[in-house]
């Protein structure tokens, strides 16, 4: 057993074993640092992803008969890191975080004490951290911390599922026994994340009962359409159970008007006597902007520029209303820059949890003892990681102001990017509001965005422009090691002149997430696009002249 014990940290905290562990950490940190290159997206050289890449892994895989030395374990792990995308200034594709140092240390503590967040007796650190961040963030968004509740769970997707489960159990407390009623309906914007789609599938409500509401030009939910569709459901004897209000759509950062949604819900409740409609704020993308809820834009202590201030002020107006929602989410692993998975589900009223809590008789192993007073029998997980520790550490290290600086910089860089892109390239249109994301679309000749938006182009032409952007995405995608832009095949829907079917719009995405993406870098981003666009247009013209 002596040899086996060497695979574990010490029992008595002796220096020798600590130094050994530290030396492994040092090797890993040093080797990964050696692979970093600020001019590239990847750590070291990307492996060649031949067609049989994963098949070869499958064939080669075998548990070694004897354990290999730790040095070799480390070598093998570092091989996996080779060619890994690394979120630095060249990454402008999606909401992928570069975990901040405090969050890494929080994660390390989580692993070292390895608590089980299921029960405070088994995981006191995570329990206390979870309760503390729940209170901190409740106060921030305007929930009453003495009646709110919160727990970390499996992502923004998991939060949508958890909130739907609360809504079902609150409406039909017997559904846990008898199954889900057949006449429940959910509503979300046509631009919402697919989280609700998966959740209605899994909850047994069915996708047919998920009603998609039209989006406005600013990518927020159209409230007239919502009202009409909800009334129609009620008229047909259905139950409007749940509305998903997206606070920052994944591709375009549209923010739904939660105050308006709440007003419609309450009107319907009054006039039709329907059961209170559950509203979940899907703030996975935008929730961090609640950090400006109490910012004083008049005295502007962090001296934000006027154009940045204007955007942040409009967010303050919208995000202050998030307190009207029955629940919301903080996805720290998006704009909060922490490791996967660090998502906090915040619930306005902890009473809701009683509908989904396990009966004491069902939990013979944990909870409900004389010792321990925090048992999360209401979560879908049994054992839970203590990811609240990483969130807690980040909140301490950044403070309100640190996060405000970080979040304001996303806006600042996007403003500069838009200005330069439209100045330097004539055949481009920026297709969303100023936000941490810029979506844009190129045209073979001149911009047709206004015509597309207003339904003046025929189907064929819109499809051609989509194709043009799709091909260009391939071109710059192949060069993603220099700058990695994102793209989407459904930035929004538009109407065509010769059809009543709505068509999706393809667009490129600029999503600055790294703290190293500053306005000084904007030249490089635009230069990269310009250069490749010129090459692409030349190639394309040559192709057409050959065909022609
Ligand atoms: C990313 C995202 C989700 C899913 O969150 P995960 O943490 O990836 O599970 C849900 N909704 C919106 C709006 C998102 O942007």
TrEMBL record:
Keywords: Decarboxylase, Lyase, Pyridoxal phosphate
GO MF annotations, alphabetized: aromatic-L-amino-acid decarboxylase activity; pyridoxal phosphate binding
Known cofactor(s): pyridoxal 5'-phosphate
Pfam families reported in the protein's UniProt record: Pyridoxal_deC (PF00282)
PANTHER family linked to this entry: CYSTEINE SULFINIC ACID DECARBOXYLASE, GLUTAMATE DECARBOXYLASE-RELATED
UniProt-recorded name of the protein: Glutamate/tyrosine decarboxylase-like PLP-dependent enzyme
Lineage: Bacteria, Bacillati, Bacillota, Bacilli, Bacillales
UniProt keyword Lyase, yes or no: yes
Family that this chain belongs to: Belongs to the group II decarboxylase family.
Claim: Lyase is one of the keywords in the record: yes
Source organism per UniProt: Cytobacillus firmus (Bacillus firmus)
Domain of life, per lineage: Bacteria
Modified residues (N6-(pyridoxal phosphate)lysine): 334
């Amino acid at each position: 057993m002596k040899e086996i014990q060497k695979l574990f940290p010490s029992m008595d905290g002796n220096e020798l074993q600590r130094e050994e562990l530290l030396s492994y950490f040092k090797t890993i940190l040093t080797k990964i640092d050696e692979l970093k290159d600020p001019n590239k997206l990847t750590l070291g050289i990307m492996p060649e992803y031949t067609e049989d890449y994963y098949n070869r892994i499958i064939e080669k895989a075998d548990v070694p008969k004897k354990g290999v030395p730790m040095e070799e374990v480390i070598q093998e792990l570092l091989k996996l890191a080779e060619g890994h995308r690394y979120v630095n200034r060249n990454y402008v594709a999606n909401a992928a975080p570069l975990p901040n140092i405090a969050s890494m240390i929080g994660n390390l503590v989580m692993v070292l004490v390895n608590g089980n967040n299921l029960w405070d007796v088994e995981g006191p650190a995570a329990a206390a951290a979870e309760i503390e961040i729940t209170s901190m963030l409740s106060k921030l968004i305007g929930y009453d911390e003495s009646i709110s509740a919160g727990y970390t769970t499996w992502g923004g997707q998991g939060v949508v599922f958890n909130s739907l489960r609360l809504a079902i159990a609150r409406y039909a407390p017997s559904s846990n026994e008898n199954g889900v009623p057949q006449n429940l309906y959910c509503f979300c914007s046509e631009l919402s994340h697919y989280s609700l789609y998966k959740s209605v599938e899994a909850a047994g409500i069915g996708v047919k009962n998920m009603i998609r509401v039209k989006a406005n030009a600013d990518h927020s939910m159209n409230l007239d359409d919502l009202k009409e569709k909800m009334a129609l459901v009620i008229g047909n004897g259905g139950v409007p159970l749940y509305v998903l209000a997206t606070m920052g759509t994944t591709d375009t950062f549209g923010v739904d008007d939660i105050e308006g949604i709440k007003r419609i819900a309450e009107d319907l409740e009054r006039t039709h006597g329907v059961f209170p409609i559950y509203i979940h704020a899907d703030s996975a993308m935008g929730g961090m902007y609640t950090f400006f809820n109490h910012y004083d834009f008049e005295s502007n202590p962090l001296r934000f520029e006027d154009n940045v201030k204007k955007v942040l002020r409009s967010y303050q107006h919208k995000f202050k209303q998030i307190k009207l929602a029955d629940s919301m989410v903080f996805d720290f692993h998006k704009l909060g820059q922490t490791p996967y998975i660090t998502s906090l589900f915040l619930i306005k009223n902890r009473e809701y949890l009683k509908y989904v809590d396990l009966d004491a008789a069902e939990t013979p192993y944990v909870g409900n003892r004389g010792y321990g007073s925090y048992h999360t029998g209401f979560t879908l997980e049994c054992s839970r990681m203590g990811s609240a520790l990483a969130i807690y550490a980040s909140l301490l290290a950044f403070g309100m102001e640190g996060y405000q600086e970080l979040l304001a910089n996303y806006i600042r860089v996007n403003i500069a990017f838009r200005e330069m892109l439209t100045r330097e390239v004539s055949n481009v249109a920026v297709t969303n509001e100023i936000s941490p994301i810029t979506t844009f679309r190129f045209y073979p000749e001149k911009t047709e965005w206004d015509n597309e938006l207003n339904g003046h182009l025929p189907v064929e032409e819109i499809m051609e422009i989509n194709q043009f952007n799709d091909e260009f995405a391939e071109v710059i995608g192949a060069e993603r090691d220099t700058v990695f832009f994102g793209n989407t095949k459904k930035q929004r829907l538009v109407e065509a002149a010769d059809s009543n079917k709505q068509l999706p719009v393809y667009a490129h995405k600029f999503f600055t997430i790294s703290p190293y993406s500053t306005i000084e870098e904007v030249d490089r981003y635009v230069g990269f696009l310009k250069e490749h666009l010129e090459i692409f247009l030349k190639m394309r013209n040559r192709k057409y002249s050959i065909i022609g």
